[in-house]
Amino acid sequence: MIRAYAALAALGLALLTHPAGAFQEEPLIPLGPVFVRNASPTGIAVPYPVMETARCEDAFGLHASYSSTIMLANSPVGHPAGAWDVNVDMETAVLDLSVSATVDAWGVELSVLVPMVSYRAGFLDSPINSWHDLLGLEDYDYGRSTRPENQFLFEVKRDGLLVMDGVEGEWGLGDVRVGVKKSIVARPEASMSISAVVEVPSGDAAHGYGNGSPDLFIAALADLKASETLWVYLNGGLVVPGDLKGAATTVDLTTMLYAGAEVRWIFLGQYALAGQFMAASSPYDTGIDALDGLSTLASVALEYHPTVRSSIHAAFTEDPTTTNAPDVGASVGYAYRF
Ligand SMILES: [Ca+2]
Predict the structure, then answer these.
(1) Is the per-residue pLDDT at 283 higher than 70?
(2) What's the 286 CA to ligand 1 centre distance in angstroms?
(3) Ligand 1 centroid vs 132 CA: distance in angstroms?
(4) How many whole angstroms from 214 Cα to the centroid of ligand 1?
(5) Number of domains present in the structure of the chain
(6) Predicted pLDDT of residue 13
(7) Which range is most confident: 30-44, 71-85, 308-322?
(8) CA of 130 to the centre of ligand 1 (A)
(9) Per-residue pLDDT tens for 239-268?
(10) N or C: which end of the chain has fewer CB atoms below 10 A?
(11) How many angstroms separate the alpha carbon of residue 209 from the centre of ligand 1?
(12) 20 lies in some domain
């Protein structure tokens, strides 16, 4: 009996004094928040934020988003910031590649996000019309049912001058984001940090792949462990956009404020169910509610962790305020933490 107690005590001591490396994999599992971008074309052209974790990490991510947007609108007569003419009826595919690396000497994480964007005629009009018919939502289809199905339209003008026109079916580089994140709190149950991101004008603004000027994001980030199976992620910040250097005219964009929250429930050890809500004010002043209003993205996601370091997720996104966001979108993603 004494021998058994001695063995247990030795095991306990071994566990307590075991090198941290044997345990550091365990907390990797609740890896939020889900990567969801505003993939409306008028949301890709300008710098809409994406929720970020407060952890500084060495990671790789690949995310694919697909969404459908319709916006057929004009500025009210006499709008002081110009007469906008917005004709958008198309679908958007985006591939986002992200890489981050920690620099221990500086106590920071450096990151880069590279988007590839394709505007397409798409295939979703028929199922979306059927869905609206089924639910009796004909009044909420924003003119979708009056348009020919799956015909490409992406042209935005101000005062008759072209701001952007999309090119159907091609893939273009979007605006690349380069970020630095400084950790303030890094504990197993809570991480907090400050993030600064510069978006460089690598995308062709005339065709809606970017805004043609550098933009700056500043945000405060928090990851909080609410219980053994529940995590909460909070982001809040502002975006200072450069001008939108359009095809034939340059547009002033105003500073955007944003906030995002995700609640994530971990179940069966390797799965997570996440609900995310993101709201951002608009950088546009067009007099058109659908462009100037608060952009909101509500997403639900299911994530699976094949290993403690890797995750695969699928997410579905709706726009509760129906302003400056895709009507409906879906995304899948893979991430690996080194
Ligand atoms: Ca930009």
Answers:
(1) yes
(2) 19
(3) 34
(4) 6
(5) 1
(6) 42
(7) 71-85
(8) 36
(9) 999 999 999 999 999 999 999 999 999 999
(10) N
(11) 8
(12) no
Confidence (pTM):
0.86
End-to-end CA distance of the chain: give it in Å, rounded: 44
For residue 4, is it within any domain? no
Determine contact, residues 222/252, Cβ cutoff 8 Å. no
329 CA from centroid of ligand 1 (Å): 21
Residue 216 maps to which CATH number? 2.40.160.40
In a domain, 9, yes or no: no
- How far apart CA 180 and CA 194 sit, in angstroms, is 8
**What is the per-residue pLDDT for 3?**
52
> What is the residue range of 166's domain?
34-337
User: Distance from the CA of 267 to the center of ligand 1, in angstroms?
Assistant: 38
Structure tokens at 294: 């608060």
Cα 35 to middle of ligand 1, angstroms:
18
In a domain, 27, yes or no: no
Asked whether residue 92 carries a pLDDT value surpassing 70, the answer given is: yes
Give the CA count within 13 Å in the CB-facing half-sphere of 256: 29
Residues β-bridged to residue 168: 119
